[in-house]
Amino acid sequence: MQITPEHQQHAQDLLDFIDASPSPWHAVATLEQRLRVDGYTRLDERKLWRLSSGDRHYVIRGDSSLIAFQVGEKATADSGFRIIGAHTDSPGLRLKPKAAYGSEQLTRLGVEPYGGPILATFTDRDLSLAGQLHLRGKDGVESRLIRFEQALARLPNLAIHMNRKVNDEGLKLNKQTELPLILGQLQNELPPAQQFRALLAKQADCPAGNILSFEFNVYDTQKGAFWGAAGEFLADSQIDNLSSCHAGLCALLDAKPAPHTSVCAFFDHEEIGSESHKGADGSFLSDILERITQSRGEERSEYQRGLAHSLMISADAAHAFHPNFPNAYESCHAIRLNQGPAVKINSNQRYATDGFTEAWFAELCRQAGVPSQTYVHRSDLGCGSTIGPMSAARLGMRTMDCGAPMWAMHSARESAGVMDQLSLARMLTTHLENTARF
What we know:
This protein is of the alpha/beta class. It has helices at residues 5-19, 24-37, 76-79, 166-169, 192-204, 239-254, 284-295, 300-308, 355-368, 388-395, 418-433, and strands spanning 41-42, 56-61, 65-70, 81-87, 92-103, 106-114, 127-137, 140-147, 181-185, 211-220, 225-227, 233-236, 261-267, 311-315, 318-319, 342-344, 373-375, 398-403, 405-407, 414-417. It is built from eleven helices and 20 strands. A nine-stranded mixed beta sheet has the order 1-2-3-13-4-14-18-16-17, with helices on both faces. A six-stranded antiparallel beta sheet has the order 8-7-10-5-6-9, sandwiched between helices. The longest helix is centred in the middle third of the chain and has 16 residues, at 239-254.
């Protein structure tokens, strides 16, 4: 195993990307910033589009989902699409609408789990808030990105003296009564809700009376880091699935122009089922693909012909083999960190990969010059899913599921291999550049 400076630079860029994106709304803002630097311009879904070969644009829906694309050199019917799909959200804690309340001379924040986080990993960490604030503006409701950089709240553990079985039975937290965060000590001047509103107003530099609502993600303020004897691993929050968003973005920006239209779709709400107007089970991707075709003066039948020889990669993190828990893995399909991206297969279509796309994944990795692995979940354990199957069904398009291996998926602090991040990006770049017809 040889970690090169290029591996390290790419992995550091991933950590910087994650640390700049403590919520799905911030992730889309980070994606937008990088796309604009590379010459991509934003399109408005409410307006008429006129597109030509080589045009590079992006569309944002609901502030936390984004689709970017480069229009192909040939007609859709002749070239189709090459698509990468990933998701901007991660499991964790979200503030409730009426979050702040007083209890035992403390101001506490009510939260609820978003998706399936490992709740115990959020205890005893330097937590803060990031998301959107919705304000009364001159012409209606205005939305503003908000991030508290400093450690603002905490979920202190119960001492072992009061929980003697914690090391034998694990830490179990009641989602209603034992998850509220401690924000600070009660102040006598204002009720907790007003104190919290004043805190938000100060951060947003706006009158407290203009605040209408907020959507806040609880995030860990600790920055990403390398670890391991040779610095071969990395740790950060939200590796699932901002690592795939980063890889997809790098692929789109690095890929050479092609006959087909190259697309990267970054969806919110994957962790809670994707059933929303901006989720992968909604119309966002199909709407954009069809509008790209129509804006070039092509008919719907040409769009449908193009879909028939297109290919989508659903990029989402994969479960790396953990040596402390060997019985949690399918012995013949265990994948390991720093040994390349893995194609994910499930006969019940929890992953969208079929025999053809499994073979094509191996070919893409060979062309990219990176190693490849194959992941299958244990048959006696419930298998998670991705945006792959729903996207394949909605579009009628060949799709594969793959991702970089990682440890501690859905923890507040996840880990992955340094080398796998560049390998995944190279494979995805090869996918966008490949001109094979299907």
